[in-house]
Design a protein that fits this description.
Strand content: 5-15%
Shape: globular
Structural class: mainly alpha
Distance between the termini: 31 Å
Oligomer: single chain
Number of domains: 1
Number of strands: 12
CATH class: Mainly Alpha
CATH topology: Glycosyltransferase
Number of helices: 13
Largest sheet: 2 strands, antiparallel
Strand order of the largest sheet: 1-2
């Protein structure tokens, strides 16, 4: 009998090898003003601008990789920090542009925009990339990278002054470049990532205020909205937080604001609720019982409705409000979050059923998403699990996949960065 020597997906040797492979692929994203959008073979797409969300997520990854002992990661993390304090940052009015302004000269572009009938020459300032600036700065602070703590202080001040809505206990979606007008829209996607970012910020600063803000966001959107919709989560809202269930019905495959229920976000929320529960517990704060209950209900309903929704392996990107698949493409980030949440709930509850899901989804990811030929993961598959690119062209970043392979290796904590040692491991990731 022949015994296979191929590591089992999801087990330590496989996770560790995949961790190193992903960091190596991500290193190719470095461009002079941050980190660029990578194509399917790992080359930077030259016609795309350098975006804040990608640069921040890559900076977060390299900061964690530095703590894991990767010998090249510190330089890459510092490169990302330089971009976030340089070309992506509005040094005059504060905050971060969604992308590097055309020509790289913010002041000149601003002057031109004011001189051209009110047309904006600068990108908007959105909650989504700002959340990742906080996440990157938090991880870089934990990694003791130069300038990271100052960046984190600035980013949290912007959050506090511009994005946090005290009356709603949630976040605004976006501003124009001059902080003069906000978009008449609120979104659950950016709010969810603020929960992740604020938990990391609490770990980096020791300030429980950020954990409390994360709890307030989760209480509104999960314990309030999702619970009221039978564990489906409308993601689009009016400025007074009334759901807009038909939002983008005519553009259902929008990469950031799709129509319908997004299964991957339900799974991601479930994991974040467990991190939040642990953060409150460790801080000696009152821990609402609904955090664990809602996490398990989100997970159970997401899996029941989303896995095999159209009869084929994988999670369909979106479902309508009757749980029928709308966009049937399979996204890499969804199965990455599924494995993380299954692992997290298995550790927190001891229920073996979660481990069975974990094993099943890592096997699926290994067979279909992991790209052994060109590197990283195939970001999108069609309903037959073949490579596709109608929603996500190329392989923009490794944030979801890297966290998925890292979490089971480092253990459960209040944030992923908090689970790592305060000084880099010697000899690289092990």
């Amino acid at each position: 009998m022949t015994t296979s020597t191929h590591p089992v997906p999801g087990e330590p040797a496989w996770l560790n090898a995949e961790e190193r492979r992903l960091v190596g692929f991500a290193a190719g994203a470095a461009v002079p003003d941050g980190f660029g959008w990578l194509d399917a073979k790992g080359g930077v797409e030259p016609d795309r601008p350098t975006e804040t969300w990608i640069t921040a997520r890559m900076t977060h990854v390299f900061s964690l990789a530095h703590l894991r002992g990767d010998p090249d990661a510190a330089e890459l993390a510092d490169h990302g920090l330089a971009a976030l304090t340089g070309p992506l940052c509005d040094g005059d009015l504060g905050g971060w542009f969604d992308e590097v302004p055309e020509g790289g000269d913010a002041a000149r572009v601003r002057e031109r925009s004011h001189a051209s009938s009110g047309e904006r020459g600068l990108p908007a300032k959105s909650a989504y990339p700002h959340a990742f600036v906080v996440l990157a700065a938090s991880s870089a602070t934990l990694a003791a990278r130069p300038g990271a703590r100052d960046l984190l202080t600035r980013a949290l001040t912007v959050f506090d002054e511009r994005f946090w809505e005290e009356e709603a206990a949630c976040v605004r979606e976006s501003w124009d470049a001059d902080w003069t007008a906000t978009e008449p829209y609120r979104g659950a996607n950016s709010a969810m990532h603020w929960v992740e970012a604020l938990l990391a910020a609490a770990d980096a600063t020791g300030d429980i205020r950020w954990t409390r803000r994360a709890l307030a966001i989760a209480e509104r959107l999960v314990h309030g909205v999702a619970a009221a919709h039978d564990w489906r989560l409308p993601e689009h809202f009016t400025p007074d937080w009334q759901p807009i269930p038909d939002y983008n019905r005519d553009q259902p495959d929008h990469p950031f604001r799709p129509f319908g229920s997004t299964t991957g976000h339900l799974l991601e929320w479930a994991r974040l609720l467990v991190h939040l529960e642990l953060a409150l517990e460790r801080a000696g704060e009152a821990v609402p019982a609904w955090l664990r209950t809602d996490a398990e209900l989100l997970f159970a309903n997401a899996v029941r409705r989303g896995w095999h929704a159209d009869g084929a392996e994988g999670f369909a990107y979106t479902l309508d409000w009757e749980d029928r698949p709308v966009v049937r493409q399979r996204m890499h980030w969804v199965v990455a979050e599924a494995t993380m949440t299954a692992w997290t709930l298995a550790r927190r509850t001891g229920d073996q059923a979660y481990t069975e899901y974990y094993d099943r989804w890592w096997d699926y990811a290994d067979r279909f998403h992991v790209d052994r030929e060109h590197g990283s993961w195939r970001h999108e598959l069609d309903p037959s699990n073949r490579p596709a690119g109608s929603v996500w062209a190329g392989k923009p970043d490794v944030y979801h996949a890297y966290q998925a392979v890292l979490l089971p290796q480092v253990g459960l904590s209040t944030s992923i960065g908090a689970a790592l040692p305060a000084t880099p491991q010697e000899g690289g990731a092990a």
